[in-house]
C-alpha cells in the first residue's frame, strides 16, 4: 500500500518542469565542471630511477573525478549543493571499490558516475517536492479549511 502512494506521488509530480529542470541543470553543471579540466596521464607502473625525483599527479591532495584532479572552489560549491547525495554516494563508492578492486583511474570514473546519478536524483526529488508544495498551495487542502468547514 505504501509503495502505491509513492508511485502515485512520482507519477503526479515527478514529471514537472521544475523537477526535470533542476535535474537537467545539475547534469549540465556537473559535466561542465568535471570536463573543463584535462585528464591526468595514467599512473606509471615503472619504478622511478634512483637519481631522479618522480612526481605522480595521482598522489596529490584533492579530489579525483573522471580521471581529473580538482582542488578548487568550483567543485567545492557543487559538493556543498550535493552534500546529501555525497553522503550516500560515499557509502556506495566504498562498497564498489572494496568489491571490484579496480585501479585509481577506474575508481575516479566510478566516483564521478555515482556522484552524477545520486546528485541528479537528489535535485529531481527536490524539484518534485517543490512542485507538490506549489500545487498544494493552489488548491484547497485539508490544511486550508473550505467555506463549508468554516461554517460559511
Would you kindly provide a written description of the structure presented here, covering whatever features stand out?
The radius of gyration is 23 Å and the shape is elongated. The two termini are 36 Å apart. It has one domain. The model has no long low-confidence stretch (mean pLDDT 83). The chain has a two-stranded antiparallel ribbon with strand order 1-2. It has 6 helices and 2 strands, in the order H-H-E-E-H-H-H-H. With 152 residues, the protein is mostly helical. 16% of the residues are buried. The longest helix has 35 residues, at 104-138. Helix 1 crosses helix 5 (104-138) and helix 2 (17-35) runs antiparallel to helix 5.
Please provide a brief summary of the model.
About 65% of the residues lie in helices and about 5% in strands. The chain has helices at about 1-15, 15-35, 75-80, 85-100, 105-140, 145-150, and strands at about 65, 70. The longest helix has about 35 residues, at about 105-140.
How are the elements arranged and paired?
Blueprint: H1 2-13, H2 17-35, E1 63-65, E2 68-70, H3 73-81, H4 83-100, H5 104-138, H6 147-150
Antiparallel strand pairs: 1-2
Beta-strand content estimate? under 5%
| Rounded average pLDDT | 83
The number of distinct helices, counting runs of at least 4 residues, comes to 6
Oligomer: single chain
Computed over alpha carbons, the radius of gyration is 23 Å
Low-confidence stretches: none
Widest β-sheet, arrangement of strands: 1-2
Return the structural class: mainly alpha
Order of helices and strands: HHEEHHHH
Helix content: 55-70%
Q: Quick one: biggest sheet? A: 2 strands, antiparallel
